[in-house]
Design a protein that fits this description.
The complex is a heterodimer of chains A (327) and B (432). Chain A has 327 residues and is mostly helical. Helices cover 72% and strands 2% of the residues of chain A. Chain A has a two-stranded antiparallel ribbon. Chain B contains 16 helices and 11 strands. In chain B, β1, α2 and β2 form a beta-alpha-beta unit. The longest helix of chain B has 30 residues, at 2-31. Classes of the chains: A mainly alpha (327), B alpha/beta (432). The interface between A and B is large, with 37 and 43 residues.
Chain lengths: 327, 432
């Protein structure tokens, strides 16, 4: 039933837009192919079905997105609710903000640490789980379970584990190592935040990779082996290219996620020590809700939006260089 | 075919109903701002059952006198993010009618015309006795003759201590030292070290809510050494050698003596993990249930003198509230002499007539008359209110970030404190 209804549209409804004059000349002619009743009914049903999602999207995504761009050109006083248009002053202030460079550096450092760490670990786990060994299901559930745990619960748990006398250091002490104060030292704080985030998010990429690995036709690998290829060569020349579309997807999603990290920073370090873990999303929160600079925070949010857009576009463009096929 | 059609229609109907509900939900959110609904909302940062029972008792009495009041709700916001949560409500155009304000943020709220000037209403109210309010305790909340909040809690910081833990460690008793005029920060640090060395408690001293995040909780040490973060609003006081001395004393306790938690270490006073605890009287309710002997002493003195430090909380009426007249009425009711005395159970009142040990002891069963005299009444006389500033949140955060470098075993205190000044000077200059 549905197949017939997805048939190509009648020629009349698909005709290209014509100049006004020509149209008026044709006006007298009777409509040859009016939209059938069932098609109109289908259209209304379609609109009704997407309405809840669209309303939610407009209210909570599109509306705020447009509002943020507008607010970025204003001075918005949280305490009084007054809004005054100030042109590009917030963007100029951004260029002169001494902390902005540090925040950008921290954000880049976080992403550069998180993305390769996450992808490599996820791939490694997926390859290990793909070996068909006993207990695979248990391990898969184990690595995936942090993904479904609340981010705040996960982070609070790690806050205690990584505190000076926490579980991690107690464990290290049993082997005679005096562990650092993970969250309070500038050298280890960023690493700790990255680690907590990788462990939280690696499961989802692992599952994606596992599905991709299981979809690689066995014949291809066998053919390579028959040709004398070793395991590593098979992995590099056959498996990796075959799962490259999934790797692209995982890379894009992980990069976007890494730029949005906020809850972990709030719970673990509050941007410290110093400003060493103040990343862009956390800085936006600070400016908007701690310093009452909603206009400036909006300008920062626009910059974050553009950064995500550009990075995604770059990855999409680069895919031609390394993605072997598109599913 | 028939059932498919019916299923489809049901799905469409459900989706449409959901959409309508969503749209209605969104519109009612913004449309609910009708004026004067008689439902008073009051933002507070306490979630203590005892505090809320007291506040609700006052609210009940007010409702009995004002039948037009439909409800009075005390909204407990997270103390750690209180001002953030409050400012978000203000920004969204849905402010509470009244709210507690922290002394450090007073300037921001007043300078932005967020609060209503209550001085005329207080002067006009019969039997209110506005002249009963202690002028020294109002300075943070006044601009000229205008008064923007009633400092319902003017609570001195004091040292509450586990007398058993100190005695077992053969440390001198702080209250006795204070009576003899020998209670200074050196004496405190010695006592703290004795406790830690003798292991009668894990730490000798715990500064409430400091945790190396809220540097302003160290103001009692700074003040004792004669240092001030911004002595005259526009200048930075962190480069003052007295500040270096104060910070170094605390560093010595944390990193050499290990007598106060170092960064990343946690402790709880009430469960006996620390022998001395610097906090305010409103925060020591759990002392009623502890099994060990406890006592209280004023803050230690230092080279800068013996002035005490007061933390304040004000009750203000928000100019943007929906029930402005009712809110003003409630403000006058909740802060009149009778209710100020009730509030005195937890929050030392700013009314001169209530500031004697006899009156305070009626509502404050936890502390003895002697304790009330030494840690509250005497301290209020010489007390300096914890410093605030316009753009306080920004100054506070930048100071926190720059100060982080000093909280490690090896640090050049003077250099770090100079960095603090470099960081906050532009903000101090731009303030009022």
């Amino acid at each position: 039933m549905s197949l017939t209804r997805r048939a190509p549209a009648p020629a009349a409804s698909a005709r290209p837009t014509v100049p006004l004059k020509v149209r008026s000349a044709r006006r007298a002619a009777p409509a040859r192919n009016p939209t059938p009743k069932w098609r109109r009914r289908d259209r209304y049903a379609g609109y009704a079905l997407i309405a809840p999602q669209m309303l939610g999207f407009v209210a909570f995504v599109l509306g705020p997105l447009i509002a943020v761009v507008y607010y970025s050109f204003t001075k918005y006083n949280n305490l009084t609710g007054e809004i005054s248009f100030i042109g590009g002053d917030n963007y100029r202030a951004l260029l002169e903000d001494p902390l902005a460079v540090e925040v950008a550096r921290n954000t880049a450092l976080f992403s550069a640490g998180l993305v390769p760490f996450n992808i490599c670990l996820a791939l490694l786990l997926a390859v290990l789980l793909d070996q068909g060994m006993r207990g695979t299901v248990i391990f898969r559930a184990m690595f995936f379970s942090p993904t479904v745990v609340s981010i705040i619960a996960w982070t609070i748990l790690w806050f205690f584990l990584l505190s000076k006398d926490g579980g991690v250091n107690l464990l290290l002490r049993t082997v005679g190592v005096d562990g650092p104060n993970w969250l309070r030292e500038p050298d280890t704080a960023m690493f700790s935040v990255i680690l907590v985030q990788v462990l939280k998010g690696v499961g989802i990429n692992m599952v994606l990779f596992l599905a991709a690995l299981q979809a690689v036709p066995t014949e291809l690998r066998e053919a390579a082996r028959v040709d004398g290829a070793r395991a590593w060569t098979v992995f590099r020349r056959i498996t990796l290219p075959m799962i490259s579309p999934t790797m692209l997807l995982a890379a894009i999603v992980t990069v976007i996620g890494s730029l949005q990290v906020f809850g972990q920073i709030l719970v673990l370090t509050r941007g410290g020590p110093g400003n060493s873990t103040t990343v862009l999303a956390y800085y936006i929160y600070q400016q908007a809700f701690k310093f009452f600079e909603l206009g400036y925070a909006s300008a920062l949010a626009v910059v974050l939006f553009l950064a995500v857009l550009i990075l995604t576009a770059v990855q999409w463009w680069l895919r031609k260089k390394w993605v072997f096929h598109e599913q | 075919m028939e059932s498919t059609q019916r299923r489809r229609m049901r799905a469409v109907g459900f989706a449409a109903a959901l959409a309508v509900t969503l749209a209605a939900g969104c519109s009612s959110g913004s449309g609910g701002a009708s004026g004067g609904d008689g439902k008073l909302r009051i933002a507070v940062w306490t979630a203590s059952k005892d505090h809320l029972a007291l506040l609700n008792g006052i609210a009940k009495d007010f409702k009995a006198e004002h039948p037009e009041v439909r409800s009075i709700t005390f909204e407990s916001l997270d103390p750690a993010d209180y001002t953030t949560a409050l400012s978000t409500q203000l920004a969204s155009g849905n402010p509470p009618d009244l709210g507690w304000i922290l002394e450090t943020n007073a300037a921001d709220f007043i300078e932005n015309d967020t609060l209503v000037d209550m001085a005329p209403a207080m002067a006009a109210e019969k039997g209110y006795a506005a002249d009963d309010l202690e002028p020294a305790l109002l300075s943070q909340w006044k601009r000229g003759d205008s008064l923007y909040a009633y400092p319902f809690s003017s609570s001195p910081f004091a040292v509450f201590y586990n007398a058993d833990a100190l005695a077992k460690a053969k440390a001198d008793d702080p209250a006795k030292l204070a009576a003899a005029g020998e209670w200074d920060w050196e004496a405190l640090s010695k006592a703290a070290k004795k406790v830690t060395d003798a292991k009668t408690a894990r730490y000798g001293l715990l500064v409430h809510e400091f945790d190396y995040k809220n540097w302003d909780r160290l103001y009692p040490v700074m003040n004792a050494y004669g240092a001030h973060p911004w002595p005259d609003k526009d200048s930075c006081g962190f480069t003052d050698p007295k500040m270096t001395e104060a910070v170094d004393l605390f560093r010595r306790m944390a990193f050499d003596d290990h007598s106060t938690p170092a960064p990343g270490e946690q402790a709880d006073f009430f469960s006996g993990e620390a022998a001395m605890f610097i906090t305010q009287v409103s925060k020591v309710g759990p002392l009623a249930d502890v099994k060990w002997k406890w006592d209280a002493a004023p803050l230690p003195t230092g080279p800068g003198g013996g002035d005490q430090v007061i933390g304040q909380a004000g009750l203000g009426v928000f100019a943007g509230g929906k029930n402005l007249d009712l809110a003003k009425e409630f403000y006058l009711f909740a802060t009149n002499k009778e209710n100020a005395a009730k509030l005195g159970q937890f929050f030392p009142p700013p009314r001169t007539s209530l500031l004697d040990a006899e009156t305070l002891s009626k509502t404050n069963p936890l502390l003895s008359k002697e304790q009330l005299q030494t840690v509250i009444l005497d301290s209020l006389k010489s007390g300096k209110v914890r410093p605030g500033h316009t753009q306080y949140a920004k100054i506070n955060e930048q100071t926190r970030a720059a100060l982080d470098a000093v909280w490690k075993p090896k640090a050049d205190t003077g250099k770090v404190l100079a960095d603090v000044c470099d960081s906050i000077k532009p903000l101090l200059g731009s303030g009022s």
